[in-house]
Structures are given as structure tokens and as C-alpha cells.
Design brief:
The protein is an alpha/beta fold. The protein has two domains: about 140 residues, Aspartate Aminotransferase, domain 1; about 230 residues, 3-Layer(aba) Sandwich (Aspartate Aminotransferase, domain 2). The chain is built from 14 helices and twelve strands. The chain has a seven-stranded mixed sheet with strand order 2-8-7-6-5-3-4, sandwiched between helices. Strands 9-12-11 form a three-stranded antiparallel sheet. A two-stranded parallel ribbon has the order 1-10. The longest helix has 22 residues. The protein is globular and about 60 Å long. The chain binds 4'-deoxy-4'-aminopyridoxal-5'-phosphate and glutamic acid.
Length: about 400
């Protein structure tokens, strides 16, 4: 007999975290691996944010806080939403959790009953379907085709709605594709959600990483859609604070209260002094965000140009986040039938770590994160090019 529950047995391991730890383990053994796996910015957290957390520790801000986050941080989030998104929220409509991953987990726990369906565009971030299943929900996949720049449409979503559909997931800019949904299409998705009485989980964690365009939140298309949007965001990507573990939700007060009860009984509050750093992130100077964005844009331009010149590979230009999701169909063969086999081949052969597309629902693609230095990107692409030439005989 096994001690493991069906729930745990059915939960797939995270391929993004998995590839990261494998690459790091090889590096620790002295192997010169180029890591394109990590979904985290390579920059340090800006100094003024660290200082605010240090100050909080030194003045003894080391006790439990309200489970849903300190009032000051929830106010700072409301100010951010007003300033950057022209959205009005009350601190009662905000809950701070232990990373946006935890926020999303709590949403599914608070909203789904067994058998409820959640529409998830493919390619998707690896944790959405697993978290839906952990809440006894059913992930329903909707194609966001490569030919459409991996952008999902309202029409494709509409086709998959059933009487059991409760939530529709929007992740723009997207992990893993970097796709940004055009405002007109986003408005159509908003109209669909209102018309069909669905909640929208809008994961806007890459809001500040858009290139040459301004982010638009789906919640900003009017009060009807705002009140059914579960707007998720966090500090990991914009402020390079992945290890701080802070994410948040803005939404309907009744739902926030339900998530608060779950948080009361599971994790309690996010780390006290980390929350003070987050207040400084939102209220302090924002130049650090622009500096990181501009470095990411240079890397994106370089990596896409190089990838499209490699035999067997084609790559859509992503408009946001720090990922590219090239199609590697031209490198596959009987010996290397899918992106899992190719990723193994690349790690063993030319020592580059990429995340196979299978974990994101696209087995003919692979994800490269360019949240690593330009020197590493150049070296990694030289290696990929050599491997591709060998595989294609070019
Ligand atoms: N959503 C998406 C789309 C992500 O890529 C990530 C990063 N892992 C998260 C949510 C969670 O971020 P965090 O828990 O670090 O706030
Ligand atoms: N979001 C990042 C990624 O996709 C971090 C890893 C994770 O949490 O899945 O690589």
C-alpha cells in the first residue's frame, strides 16, 4: 500500500523548476551549462527595496501580521492600480499571498467545486492545470495557435464554454510564449465573460515586461468586467523579487474574504518584513523597472534574430515577458521525437538547459528564458546552432 494520496499522485512535477534545479546541480559539479530554464530575472533586487526590509527587521517588525497582508501594503497596491491601470479598488478587495503562485492556488480553492471547469489557453504556464486539479476542478484547454502569435481569441474560448465553466484564464503577457493579447481582442474576451457569467483570472505578473506597448488590464474595460476579474500580480518579475515570495490579488470583496479564510487556516500572513520591502517597491522610484525592461528587450531582439537563422528552428517575436517559444519541429526525428527528447539531447550534448514545450502543452516547441546575461545567451545560441546543424546536416 502506498501512503501517497490520489491528489498528490496526480500532481505532475513542475518542469520549469525541475529543469532549473538540474542545470544548477550540473553547474555545482563544475559543468559549464548555459541555463535558459530559469523563469526569474537575473538582476538583484533594487537596493532601496532591500533597505526597507532591513529597516523593518531592525525596528522589530518580526511578528505575525494580518493574514491577508498589512494595511499599508494593501493601500500601496490600491495606489498602484489607480496610478498605472486607472482602476479603483479598496484595501478590502486586496489580499497578499506567498507569491502569485499561492494567490492563484487560493483562487481555485476558493472558487471551484468538484467538476467545475476552467478554460486555459495553450500554451499555458505549467502550474495552472495542476492547481485546478488540486482543487478538484477540470482544466479545459483552448488553443492559442502559433500561427496567431500564440494569442487566444474570444471565439476559441467561446467554443469551449459549458454549463460547468466557471473561470477563464488570461495570461497576457504570457508565460511561456511572451504573447500579448491585443486590446480589441481582450475587450471581446471581457464581453464574453460578462455575457456568459464567467470569472476571469487575469494573471498580469509580466505587466511591466512589455516591449514597445503599454499593458492593458482586462479589468479596465468597465465595472461589469472589473467586478468579475480576479486580477493577479506580484513582485517577482517587475522588481526581481522572486525569493521574497509575495503576490497579490485584487478582486471582488466576497471572494477576497473567502481566500482570506483559506489563508487564515493554511499559511497565515506573508513574511512580515518582506511586506515592508514590497511597500518600498511600489511607492519608491520606478526607474529600476525600466532599466530591467530595456535590458530584456535588447536580449529578446538578439535571441529571436539568432533563432530564426538556425536551421530547423523558427521563432515568433514575443511582445512581452522574458521567454521565447521557438518551434523546433525541424529538429525532430525518429530518434528525437519530441521536445522532451530534444531537451535531454541538448543538455547532455551541448550543455544547454531549455524547458521542453510538453509541460506547456506544445510538444513541438521549447522554451528559452532570456533572463540571463547577454554573454551567456550568445554562448548558448552558438551551442544550439552547432547542435541544430549537426541534427539537420546543414
Ligand atoms: N504566473 C506566471 C505566469 C508565472 O510565470 C509565475 C512565475 N513562476 C507566477 C505566476 C508565479 O510567480 P510568483 O509565485 O513568484 O509570484
Ligand atoms: N515562472 C517561472 C517559470 O515558469 C518560475 C518557475 C515556476 O514557478 O514555475 O520558469
Amino acid at each position: 500500500m502506498s501512503w501517497i494520496s490520489d491528489r498528490a499522485r496526480n500532481c505532475a512535477p513542475s518542469p520549469t523548476l525541475g529543469m532549473n534545479s538540474r542545470a544548477n546541480a550540473l553547474k555545482a559539479q563544475g559543468v559549464d551549462v548555459v541555463g535558459f530554464g530559469a523563469g526569474e530575472p537575473d538582476f538583484d533586487t533594487p537596493e532601496h527595496i532591500k533597505q526597507a526590509a532591513i529597516d523593518a527587521l531592525q525596528r522589530g517588525f518580526t511578528k505575525y501580521t494580518p493574514s491577508s497582508g498589512i494595511e499599508d501594503l494593501r493601500r500601496a497596491i490600491c495606489e498602484k492600480l489607480q496610478r498605472e491601470n486607472e482602476l479603483r479598488y479598496d484595501p478590502k478587495q486586496i489580499i497578499v499571498s506567498i507569491g502569485a503562485k499561492h494567490t492563484i492556488y487560493n483562487i481555485f480553492q476558493a472558487v471551484l467545486d468538484p467538476g467545475d471547469e476552467v478554460l486555459i489557453p495553450v500554451p499555458y504556464w505549467v502550474s495552472y492545470p495542476e492547481q485546478v486539479k488540486l482543487a478538484d476542478g477540470v482544466p479545459v484547454f483552448v488553443d492559442a495557435p502559433e500561427a496567431n502569435g500564440f494569442r487566444v481569441t474570444a471565439a476559441a474560448l467561446a467554443e469551449k464554454i459549458t454549463p460547468r465553466t466557471k473561470i477563464l484564464v488570461v495570461n497576457s503577457p504570457s508565460n511561456p510564449s511572451g504573447a500579448v493579447i491585443e486590446p480589441d481582442e481582450l475587450r471581446r474576451i471581457a464581453e464574453l465573460a460578462v455575457e456568459r457569467n464567467l470569472l476571469v483570472l487575469s494573471d498580469e505578473i509580466y505587466e511591466h515586461l512589455t516591449y514597445g506597448r503599454k499593458h492593458v488590464s482586462i479589468a479596465s474595460f468597465g465595472p461589469e468586467i472589473q467586478q468579475r476579474t480576479l486580477l493577479v500580480n506580484g513582485f517577482s518579475k517587475a522588481y526581481s523579487m522572486t525569493g521574497w515570495r509575495l503576490g497579490w490579488l485584487a478582486g471582488n470583496a466576497e471572494l477576497v474574504a473567502a481566500m482570506g479564510r483559506i489563508q487564515d487556516q493554511s499559511t497565515s500572513n506573508p513574511t512580515s518584513f518582506a511586506q515592508c520591502g514590497a511597500v518600498a517597491a511600489l511607492r519608491g522610484p520606478q526607474e529600476c523597472v525600466a532599466t530591467m525592461r530595456s535590458a530584456f528587450q535588447d536580449r529578446r531582439d538578439y535571441i529571436v534574430r539568432r533563432l530564426n537563422a538556425i536551421p530547423g528552428i523558427s521563432c515568433v517575436l514575443p511582445e512581452g515577458a522574458f521567454y521565447v517559444l521557438p518551434n523546433i519541429g525541424g529538429l525532430l526525428s525518429e530518434r528525437l521525437p519530441d521536445s522532451d527528447a530534444l531537451a535531454e539531447h541538448l543538455l547532455a550534448g551541448v550543455k544547454i538547459a531549455v524547458v521542453p514545450g510538453s509541460g506547456f502543452g506544445v510538444p513541438h516547441n521549447m522554451r528559452l528564458s532570456y533572463a540571463t546575461s547577454m554573454a551567456q545567451i550568445e554562448k548558448g545560441l552558438d551551442r544550439l546552432e552547432a547542435a541544430a546543424k549537426e541534427l539537420t546536416g546543414a
